[in-house]
Amino acid sequence: SVVYNGFGTHFFKRESPFEIVKLYIPHNDFIFFLGNTDPKKNTVNVLRAYADYIDNTDSMSLPLLIADLSSEIVNSILKEENIFHIRELIFTPGYISNNHLPYIYSAAKIFLYPSLRESFGIPILESMACGTPVACNPVGCAPELLSVPEAGLQLKGDSSEQLARDIETLLTR
């Protein structure tokens, strides 16, 4: 028998997620990213792309919620990349409880998961189960998971400029 990877049964679309969400970000509309310092997670490129999105968006830009990454690390990357002007739109609460993640996914406009290398990518499934479109690189199982266009968008390249365009594409669908 083949046993496929899956996600917890507590991952489903939450109709009123904002009481929990407010513990992490004071906005109802936001972009969500699970980051860490592993280079494969593409965190620096995400922050560059987010800066491009902010700099090129005519409308009100959505804030970015980054889980599992400290403010110190984010600040260091922003300074190193000379994009610290976006700091006020980035929220870094650190660790988000697994029990709270379904609320975060449900409230997010999009979920960024542009890993450069991934074995399976359970967060992609978790986000999809909560009804949030995913932006991810076509690596590992992502092409198979995102074979349904409503599920998200396979990124068209790994440049920050392209990721910024892909963010805008997903937000305007």
Keywords, separated by commas or semicolons:
173 residues, alpha/beta, 7 helices, globular
Written account of the structure:
With 173 residues, this protein is α/β, with parallel strands linked by helices. The chain contains seven helices and six strands; from the N terminus they run H-E-H-E-H-E-H-E-H-E-H-E-H. It has helices at residues 18-21, 43-56, 71-80, 101-107, 122-129, 142-145, 160-171; strands spanning 31-34, 64-67, 90-94, 110-113, 134-136, 152-154. Strands 3-2-1-4-5-6 form a six-stranded parallel β-sheet, sandwiched between helices. Helix 3 (71-80) links the parallel strand 2 and strand 3. Helix 2 packs across helix 7. It is globular. The mean pLDDT is 88.
- Arithmetic mean of pLDDT: 88
Shape label? globular
Most strands sheet: 6 strands, parallel
Give the strand line-up of the largest sheet: 3-2-1-4-5-6
User: Total number of β-strand segments?
Assistant: 6
Number of H- or I-type helical stretches: 7
- N-C termini distance: 39 Å
Percentage of residues assigned to helices: 25-40%
Low-confidence stretches: none
Reading the helices and strands in chain order gives: HEHEHEHEHEHEH
**What is Rg?**
15 Å
Proportion in β-strands:
5-15%
